[in-house]
Amino acid sequence: MMGLTTTEAPYIEQARSDGELYIRQPYELYSEENHQAWAGLYARMTDRWERYANEHFLRGIANLCLSPDRVPNLDDVNQFLNPLTGFRAKAVSGYVPAFLFFDCLRNREFPTTITIRRADKLDYLPEPDIFHDIAGHVPMHTDRAFADTLVRFGDVAHSAAERVQAITDPEKQLRVLDSNIRAMARFFWFTIEFGLMQVPGQPLKAYGSGLLSSYGELEYSIVSPEVQRYPVQLEWVINQSFEIDHYQPLLFSVESFDHLFSLVGTLEEWMKAGKLDNVAPGEPGVNEEDLRSFLLASLQ
């Protein structure tokens, strides 16, 4: 029985072939191997969370009452999460095009993968899984300032769609949109996914979900002399490419989530002023689905 194993789940394959993006979580399909994978991932992270995770994350893990032994049921997660910040986890069958993803955040919904990696390949992650999404992302969503920052990010995406609508030249429209999406993706990567927090006078901690869900990279991000760590600079972040298939060599830190919220506001101001229209080329690439999602939004 394959259960809901990443890349090996017939339920997900069927949903994708049927064009279903938003789905239910068929909890009964999880196999014992799936639960063993969750238990193995959770058990080895607890000590590293205590050592390297920021205090907001640790409070979030406690508030969510996640089981260390069983894959979480999203209905149970939402019962603890929703009263705190209005957010809820929303099951998806796979990749969510950029505008739809940010629009979900604006509506306090977090697109959540429901499959989990194989129990014998805990370090191998070909794509996001439920451990990354629920144990990495969602504890931060219990924090009001962080949750409001995600909603604010959704506002930026809406502003980008509105701005592109006003551009009449189709070629320029695509070029500007490509650059804007790349800038937003880079900002999201270096903050929400791989952000560090440096509260003045306190030890450096991690808050990015990509770090908090990775046994190896969480410690590496804090202690390795090979990592370049700098206070966040918006002009650097939006022009800095990244690659996803190895530990990150460059990370940025914020002082607080209020600081992060203000940065998202500045990002929107820069976008409206055209400062995101010609960011440096390079990764991440912007695919046709992402472009189409913004163009369709601009027509509504």
Q: How would you concisely characterize the structure shown here?
A:
By secondary structure, the protein is of the alpha/beta class.
List keywords for this structure.
4-stranded mixed sheet; Phenylalanine Hydroxylase; alpha/beta; two-stranded parallel sheet; 300 residues; 53% helix
Uncertain stretches: none
The run of helices and strands is: HHHHEHEHHHEEHHEHEHH
Number of helices: 13
Helix and strand composition category: alpha/beta
How many β-strand stretches? Answer: 6
Mean pLDDT rating: 94
CATH classification class? Mainly Alpha
How far is the first residue's CA from the last residue's CA? 44 Å
Describe the structure.
The protein is of the alpha/beta class. It contains 13 helices and six strands. The protein has one domain (10-299): Phenylalanine Hydroxylase (Orthogonal Bundle), CATH 1.10.800. The strands form two sheets. A four-stranded mixed beta sheet has the order 4-3-6-5. A two-stranded parallel ribbon has the order 1-2. The mean pLDDT is 94. It starts with 9 loop residues before the first helix and ends with a helix.
What secondary-structure arrangement, pairings included, does this model have?
Blueprint: H1 10-17, H2 32-52, H3 55-64, H4 74-85, E1 88-92, H5 98-106, E2 109-113, H6 130-137, H7 144-165, H8 170-193, E3 196-197, E4 205-206, H9 209-212, H10 215-223, E5 228-231, H11 234-237, E6 250-254, H12 257-272, H13 288-299
Parallel strand pairs: 1-2, 3-6, 5-6
Antiparallel strand pairs: 3-4
Helix pairs in contact: 2-10, 5-7, 7-8, 7-12, 7-13
